[in-house]
Amino acid sequence: MSNQILLSLSGACLGRPLPRKESGLALLDMPPFVAEELELRGLNLPVDLIRGQSATTLEKLRHIADRAHCPCLVLYQDEPMDFLGNAEGATQTLRSLGRAAKLLGCGELGIRVVCPLGGVLTVTPALKAAVQAIQQFDVNLLIRPTIDPPDPPEQVMDLVKRIGGFHIGAMPSFAYVHATGDGMESLRKLAPYSSAIEATASGFAKDGTHVSWDLNGFVEALLSLGYLNKFSIDWTGSTNWVAGVQKTRERLLELMGRGDPVS
To answer: Is 203 exposed, middle or buried (0-12, 13-18, 19+ CB in 10 A)?
Structure first.
């Protein structure tokens, strides 16, 4: 069953210089590189990578990604949106991102939401209206929990459930669940609502274990829970990022009992 999990890349690292080179990849070169050099079959794009690009360029990127068999899956933003203090502005930003996601061929849009403790009931109406506003772009919304400080997983669950329907889900990361203080329990709560999970990694010890959190345990827990959606490799280490992504991919394949390249 784990063979159904798609391995993709959270593309923030693509903005870094290539190893032993002074510059990074050009935007339109990213999908073929991810498919051929990293052997991944999906690309999740941070908003910063496409900021200021024309609609023509985004559509061209979509076509290149499709031809490389590495489609753009999720457009995501790190900066939280404030649907409490500025609902109109946040909704307008969401519409703009929804339009960009459609041009890229992304089926999902990942955002963080400003939601104070106990504030789910006050945030829900504006966010529900925003979800409806982006349906014209055929894009689903994924809630990416804030890491510092970490949103309580129960609050993320409650927000997703109150909005309801097939167009809302969660997109937690290993870095986030580790920050909650009980990564296994946080995964247990959020996995049923998660369309994608960011497999955050920053370094590995000689024995293959992750240096900062129990990546092995997180993956094994998700498999035991029947998780079958996407793993998005998010390399945050300071060392060679290409080698880091490749090592993370290899480790995920080992843990899933899958030694061949993803198809």
So the answer is: middle
Classify strands 168-170 and 196-201 as parallel, antiparallel or unpaired.
unpaired
* Angstrom distance (rounded) from CA 262 to CA 254: 12
Cβ atoms 140, 109 nearer than 8 A: yes
C-alpha 226/C-alpha 187 separation (Å) is 12
**Model pTM greater than 0.90?**
yes
Rounded-to-5 percentages of helix, strand, coil across the chain: 45, 15, 35
Q: How far apart are CA 216 and CA 251, in angstroms?
A: 8
- Per-residue pLDDT of 88-103, as tens digits, reads 999 999 999 999 999 9
Whether the predicted pLDDT of 262 surpasses 50: no
Q: Would you tell me how many other CB atoms lie within 10 Å of the CB of residue 118?
A: 9
| pLDDT at residue number 118 | 81
**What is residue 259's predicted lDDT score, i.e. its pLDDT?**
56
Which DSSP state fits 31?
A: H
List beta partners, residue 43.
9, 72
CA distance 151 to 148: 8
The pLDDT value recorded for residue 261 is: 44
Pure H helices in the chain: 30-36, 47-50, 55-67, 87-104, 120-133, 153-163, 174-179, 183-190, 215-224, 241-255
Q: What count of other Cβ atoms lies within 10 Å of the Cβ of residue 89?
A: 12
Average model confidence (pLDDT) across the chain: 93
Tell which wins on pLDDT, 247 or 21: 247
DSSP, res 207: T
